[in-house]
Amino acid sequence: MSTLFLTTANTQPFDRTNLTASVAARFQVSAPKFGSWLKLQRGSRSLEQIALQVRPLVQPVALKVDRSLIQKIEQGRIPSWPMLAALSRVYGVPIEETARRLTEALTFPGSSDLLRHSGERTSKPHQAKGVSDVPASEHATAARIQQLERELAERTEQLEAREAVIREVQGIARQLFAVALPDEDRQARKRAARGRRADRAAGG
Q1: For residue 172, what pLDDT is reported?
Q2: How confident is the model over 13-26, as pLDDT tens digits?
């Protein structure tokens, strides 16, 4: 049997105090607001009814689901990804929305600060020359606005051109009336004169 050579350090008594101090305390992550939201989605259905619907959905990953697990999740326990997807299916909510609600409801030491700034960049990434940091959606909106402004300008020009034509036609019509009305007056006077002569001839 081989002999084990132990150093002085190895022969010292085991110090549990140092070990406990070197290991960080386990912190708890929960999501009570998410659990309350799930409870609202459950409505009048019982915990057992939800467990029965969830059970076959998570069977491929061998998760054991009973009413107690559903209740614990509603009280703030963080569900596993298969469980989260199954609950989304049962409640008819897109998995993206369910995951977003869970993320926003996470509670742990420092969560309020970390989650509040999670969408902010700590440093601006290197940007290629000539590339704008404006989101593509804003570019599309600006381009659409410019297109509509061009179309409006074109329609305005067309309308003004039509109005100019209408004014020109109206002017010509007024001139025609001015020329035609005196001729009609002369013809009327001639007819009246012929009528008077005819009357005199009949009376004589």
Answers
A1: 75
A2: 545 445 444 444 56
The total of structural domains in the chain comes to 1
Q: What share of the chain is helix, strand, coil (3-state, %, to 5)?
A: 65, 0, 30
Stated pTM of the model: 0.47
| One-letter identity of residue 197 | R
Q: Is residue 39 part of a domain?
A: yes
CATH number at residue 70: 1.10.260.40
29: pLDDT confidence band, cut at 50, 70 and 90? Answer: confident
Within a domain: 154 = no
Chain-wide mean pLDDT for the chain?
76
Query: Is the pLDDT higher at 132 or at 95?
Result: 95
* Structural domain for 55, as ranges: 28-112
Q: Is residue 47 part of a domain?
A: yes
DSSP, collapsed to helix, strand or coil, labels residue 179 as helix
Eight-class DSSP state of 55: G
Given a contact cutoff of 8 angstroms between Cβ atoms, the answer to whether 57 and 90 are in contact is: yes
Handedness of CA 37, 41, 44, 45 (dihedral sign): negative
What the block records as the tokens of 70 is: 């559903």
Mean pLDDT on 42-51: 95
Written as six digits, the tokens of 81 are: 């990804």
Residue 68 placed within a domain:
yes
- Which stretches of 55-135 are DSSP H helices? 67-74, 81-91, 95-105, 111-116
